[in-house]
Amino acid sequence: MNRPLLYSPLLTIYFPLFWDLLKTNSKIVLFADDGLVLLRNANLINLFTNLNIELTIIGDWYDVNKLALNADKCNYIVFSPRQRTNDINKKINQFNLNLTLNNCVLKRVNEVKYLGIYIRYDLSWATQVNHVWNKCNKYLGLLGKLRHYLSY
């Protein structure tokens, strides 16, 4: 039984039962109130089918246990090399592949912020580096303006 090392104390009672319900080889990662469902499959159609099965189980489990899950805040990302992005986008559009949670279609995103780190679909660090760069420039500019008022 795969359980993460860190999971919310509020959900300690519920989650041991939850892991037994999953049908595929998906991994669930929880930290405080953030959660990820990770699934890997070479076939895109099978990937979406299996994830929809898991999301149905997760949604039903939340409903049965009278817990709230805001599907509007949920989204998904498909990790792939840049060279295959166009092929994947064509397949998703061609076969009309969607992920649904509680009858709400999840939005596909190219990058996601998880635990303060930006993760892109191609696993590049460009977004994270730009974010840190802009944040540093902001504070360095502020220190530059305050240098006349500060003593060494």
How many DSSP H or I helices? 4
The strands making up the biggest β-sheet line up spatially as 1-2
Beta strand count: 8
- List unreliable stretches of 5+ residues: 1-13
N-to-C span: 58 Å
**What is the N-to-C order of secondary-structure elements (H for helix, E for strand)?**
HEEHEHEEEEEH
Strand content: 15-25%
Radius of gyration: 20 Å
User: What is the total number of structural domains?
Assistant: 1
Structural class: alpha+beta
Q: What's the shape?
A: extended
Report the helical percentage: 25-40%
Q: Sheet bearing the most strands, described?
A: 2 strands, antiparallel
Can you give a write-up of this model?
By secondary structure, the protein is α+β, with helices and mostly antiparallel strands. Helices cover 39% and strands 17% of the residues. The chain has one domain. The longest helix is centred in the middle third of the chain and has 21 residues.
SSE layout and pairings?
Blueprint: H1 15-21, E1 27-31, E2 34-38, H2 44-64, E3 75-76, H3 85-94, E4 100-101, E5 104-105, E6 107-108, E7 111-114, E8 117-120, H4 126-146
Parallel strand pairs: 3-6
Antiparallel strand pairs: 1-2, 4-5, 7-8
